[in-house]
Amino acid sequence: MDTPQAKNTSWIRAVPLFLVILLCTAAFQALHLFRDCTFSAIAACLVVVGYRYLILHTVTRHHTEGSRLVKAQRFEEAIQAFEQNLAFFRKHPNLDGWRSLIFLSAAKYGYREMTLLNLGYIYGQIGKGGKSEQYYKGALELNPKNRAAMAALNLLNAKLKDSDLQGAQ
Q1: Which of 57, 78, 119, 162 is the S-S candidate for 69 at Cβ 3.0 to 4.6 Å?
Q2: Does domain 11-168 have CATH number 1.25.40.10?
């Protein structure tokens, strides 16, 4: 079974990514590094992919590792990785706020917000609904319009009501 991940894309946040590709293409053309624009554009895309790979395995490595561990359903280890990620981005909130420019990330949610969603999911999977609810509410504090957190809280509440009804019978 595939584990769901919060990865909504904001197309407006993708603009810096496309601009960097265009600027690199123009720079390669101006420096006459490649004979035509196609090769310059391919090289620019490779530069961006390399940069994103570097970011994923350095600055956001705990988030990347947590996501990998969730997919492998190694939830206890994923909690540790996501907690480290959360601590890092709480310490450096500007990196998260400017992620589309710094990390060339087109993600709709910030790293703190995604981490809170992931922790909410994990705690729900291991049967700790109260802790799960706490993290989803934390995501809503960062973004009151976060539909994933709202849906998860509604699901948790529905499950609680259902178990209360079954317990009353």
Answers
A1: 78
A2: yes
